[in-house]
Amino acid sequence: MDLSEFEADNSVSCRLASAVPDVCRSEDCCLGIDEAGRGPVLGPMVYGICFCPVSKKDDLKDFKVADSKTLTEDERETLFLKLDEAKDFVGWALQILSPNTISTSMLRRAKYNLNALSHDAAIGLVQYALDSGVQLKEVFVDTVGPAEKYQEKLSQRFPGVEVTVRPKADSLFPIVSAASICAKVARDHAVKSWKFRENLGDVDTDYGSGYPNDPKTKSWLLKYLDPVFGYPQFVRFSWSTAQTLLESKSMTVHWDDDKEDGEKAASRQKCASVLSYFGRSKPQGTAREPHRYFSERKLQTLDML
Amino acid sequence: MSRSLWLMIARVKLLFFLLPERLLRFCLAFGFILLRMCSNASVITVQLGSLGQADKPQIHLLPCEIEHDGPAEVSRYFTPTVKDHKNEMSVSFRGRGLKGAEINCPQGYTGLVLKEDNKAASDQEDRTVRISSVFHRFTYWNLETKPNSDDGVVMAMTWPALAEAVSVC
């Protein structure tokens, strides 16, 4: 699988897609959606779709695709190659959500949670298939959250398409298994060959599974923790594992939009006055307030260092 | 003097001065600047001899406060991840998206970062600071929104010109 387009800038989200088979533009098609790498604290999350004509469902079954989690890495690679070779009737597309996209979305001022992010990625991919002329009739989706609500959301968004959202859909519907294989292969490749944009020299790639409870992942997170910057962009800062480690092992950072009770914030701001840099205490009994022209511009008259 | 020497206080603990170059040139002839602050009796000497050794780093002003005074691995973690596409600068810090812009110091002014190597023991003692860095521009970062003319730091750059005009009247 060629990920060079994503690797050119792995701080953003990227779409990769196969060519759309001609037959998918003329015949009624089914489409499967699945994700890979939702849980790990490291690396991207990948959304995958796979589609083929409804009449070719049995051909797909003959590939012996199965839930990607029950397959070994080699088996997934082989199956992906088979799917990619069946380009006369199978198409696929992926949305790679970089860890930086995940962090900055989830930690945004107006929070954009992982479920919304996932749903939007899935919707974007289905829309991509429709825009490419795929005659969509059936969509099968694997889900982690409540299936009914998600099914309703997708059915409303895509009228005329029969949507089935089901937990464990990746082991029930071959087209979803196929999508899960595409997504998992991309995620594995992306993690394995991650190009750190930071100047970290030779990075220890023994990350473990990337799941927070994996001791290898945990020791990697400790090894690459920087007291000021935290982590390289490979890490999802929004994961509680990462945040807990940062809270205990790195310098505290305060943002304007932090939720903090007023008194605490006020006393902290007073303590952290830039004047404290030079270690002199502020004289008591301050003179009149400066004009707001100055406060708006964060300007202060200098009367001591 | 209080008009021409001013201090910008940002939420970050970056302390820097913008000093009129005319004053700087004048003082260079003597080798130091004496500051007599009205609040206490001590004299603060800025060693201008240190100007030659001062480095000229890229200065980044972040929209947050870091509880840290000291060195940071800027060139390992931060600078390589800064993106500058078509005048749109972006980066992330601690997982939060930032957008940035280059800001020039007002014309005729030089930015200085001062450092006090030996802290004075009492309020009455004279103090000596050296110039650790010199800069003429810096990168100003905002949380998620592009820096614009409503931002305090951007607006602050207009003060020297206004101060000049006011003093003429």
Account of the protein in words:
The complex is a heterodimer of chains A (305) and B (169). Chain A has helices at residues 4-8, 22-26, 57-62, 73-85, 99-106, 114-131, 147-157, 169-172, 174-192, 215-223, 240-249, 262-271, 292-296; strands spanning 14-17, 29-36, 45-53, 91-97, 136-142, 162-166, 253-255, 299-300. With 305 residues, chain A is an alpha/beta fold. Chain A folds into two domains: 4-192, Nucleotidyltransferase, domain 5 (2-Layer Sandwich); 200-281, no CATH class. A six-stranded mixed sheet of chain A has the order 1-4-3-2-5-6, sandwiched between helices. In chain A, strand 2 and strand 3 form a beta hairpin. The longest helix of chain A has 19 residues, at 174-192. The relative contact order of chain A is 0.16. Chain B has 169 residues and is α+β, with helices and mostly antiparallel strands. Chain B is built from four helices and twelve strands. Chain B is globular. Classes of the chains: A alpha/beta (305), B alpha+beta (169). At the A-B interface, helix 5, strand 7 and strand 8 of A face strand 1, strand 6, helix 2 and helix 3 of B. Strand 8 (299-300) of chain A pairs antiparallel with strand 1 of chain B, so a sheet runs across the interface.
Task: Give the spatial strand order of the biggest sheet of chain A.
Answer: 1-4-3-2-5-6
Helix fraction of chain A, binned, reads 40-55%
Question: Hey, roughly how much beta strand do the residues of chain B contain?
Answer: 35-45%
Poorly predicted runs of chain B: 1-15
Overall structural domain count of chain A: 2
DSSP, total strands of chain B: 12
Overall pLDDT of chain B, averaged?
Answer: 76
Round the mean pLDDT of chain A to the nearest integer and report it: 88
Q: Measured on Cα atoms, how large is the radius of gyration of chain A?
A: 25 Å
**Quaternary class:** heterodimer
Q: Determine the N-to-C terminus distance of chain B.
A: 17 Å
The CATH homology group name of the largest domain in chain A: Ribonuclease H-like superfamily/Ribonuclease H
Q: What is the N-to-C succession of helices and strands of chain A?
A: HEHEEHHEHHEHEHHHHEHHE
Q: The CATH topology of the largest domain in chain A is what?
A: Nucleotidyltransferase, domain 5
Shape of chain A: elongated
Q: What proportion of the residues of chain A form beta strands (DSSP E)?
A: 5-15%
User: Helicity range of the residues of chain B?
Assistant: 10-25%
Which segments of chain A are poorly predicted (pLDDT under 50) over 5 or more consecutive residues? none
